[in-house]
Amino acid sequence: MTEVGATFADPVPWVCVALIAGALWAVRHSRLLAGLLGLCFAGLYILSVGPGADLVLRPLERAYLPLHRVPEEPIGAIVVLSGGDGWSADRPITSALSASSTDRLVEAVRVWRMLGEEPTLLMVGGVGTPGGQVEAPLMAQAAHALGVPERALSWEAYSRNTYENAVAVSDILGGESFVLVTSAFHMPRAMEAFHWLGMEPVPAPCGHAARLVHTGWDWFPRSLTLWRSAQGLREHIARLWYRLRHRTAS
Questions:
Q1: CA-CA distance, 18 to 11, in Å (whole number)?
Q2: How many domains does the chain fold into?
Q3: Is there a contact between 185 and 235 (Cβ–Cβ < 8 Å)?
Q4: Fewest CB atoms less than 10 Å from the CB: which of 44, 143, 194, 225?
């Protein structure tokens, strides 16, 4: 499908058009309603265009650089935080992961090969959403299907959120040096959680979505871009919540 066709097939641009039309109609009847519809349009438009989503994501994704060189310290493990599942009995194991989990798995395998295929790949994460599957074993199965031997695979399947992930890794690895793999937008919160527990992982962020250069098409609203904004906003809120809880606990 061409870019034009994809834009017209996307529901978000039509919702924007409906909000504009509603605001124009409401001008004659209620300025308050017209203003509210106008604000709704402005918020939806900003969050569903590329530059708007990048304003949300870029501060998170730029916090840590990608891992391109072998760390100076010996690395005993590569910790991979799960990011959701898409399991179904009729799907191949490589389709049983969410997009975030797939990005993280691919990056972990890349880093594992860069480090000479010596560290253990430790997949971390249980059931992330109600009714979902235990995620870490699925990631381990997918890694094995992609050529990682079973001897290099391990997993933890009980932690349900980022802080619990960090606690589980602390219990398993103790003071061992390790690389931490998670989505770029999630890495700042993950690193803070690990730091609170006295760990200093080597970050290996992946799945970067913010763009450095935009084209004219990036100014057209899209559902996928709105989802990117939603991920970023959720992460900013979650990071604030973690900090508040940490200060309260301290």
A1: 11
A2: 2
A3: yes
A4: 44
